[in-house]
Automatic annotation (TrEMBL):
CDD domains found in the cross-reference section: Fur_like (cd07153)
Entry binding sites for Fe cation: 110, 127
GO annotation terms (biological process): negative regulation of DNA-templated transcription; regulation of secondary metabolite biosynthetic process
A Pfam cross-reference name: FUR
Entry binding sites for Zn(2+): 95, 98, 135, 138
Organism: Paenibacillus lentus
Location in the cell: Cytoplasm
Protein name: Transcriptional repressor
GO terms for cellular component: cytoplasm
Length: 141
């Protein structure tokens, strides 16, 4: 088990959350895949190991992870939320053909928050950015 997963599990235990085998598996899958899966994809990946687990169990655990600040829900208008266990400040590039999502970071975009505050008087709490294009695999086809 990665130290990142163990750290997350320790955080949950400290906040009084019981670590069930399903909860452990969902969190591990999210943190190790880093592929921005949907709840259905998580369910399908784990169902062979947990035949009594339902999609509702996956959704309920994802909601709890979101509330604990360990997972972000990403919505892109296609009616299927994706989940990201990387809660650091980063951005996404999304393939318009296959839907693959890749992470990237670019530090100077934080200047945009400061400029937005200056121009609008808002107190900015964060931002989100997605770029759209066609991934290398789809371009080769």
């Amino acid at each position: 088990m990665t130290t990142r997963v163990q750290h997350a599990l320790d955080q949950l235990k400290q906040s009084g959350v019981r670590i069930t085998p399903q909860r452990h598996a969902i969190l591990t899958f999210l943190m190790e895949s880093m592929g921005h899966p949907t709840a259905d994809e998580i369910y399908r990946a784990l169902a062979p190991r947990f035949p009594n687990m339902s999609v509702a169990t996956v959704y309920n655990n994802l909601k709890m992870f979101i509330e604990a600040g360990m997972v972000r829900e990403l919505t892109y208008g296609d009616n299927s939320s994706r989940f990201d266990a990387d809660v650091s400040n980063h951005y996404h590039v999304i393939c318009e053909k296959c839907g693959k999502i890749k992470d990237f970071t670019y530090s100077s975009l934080e200047d945009v928050e400061q400029k937005a505050e200056e121009m609008t008087g808002f107190q900015v709490h964060g931002h989100r950015m997605e770029l759209y294009g066609v991934c290398g695999d789809c371009r080769e086809q």
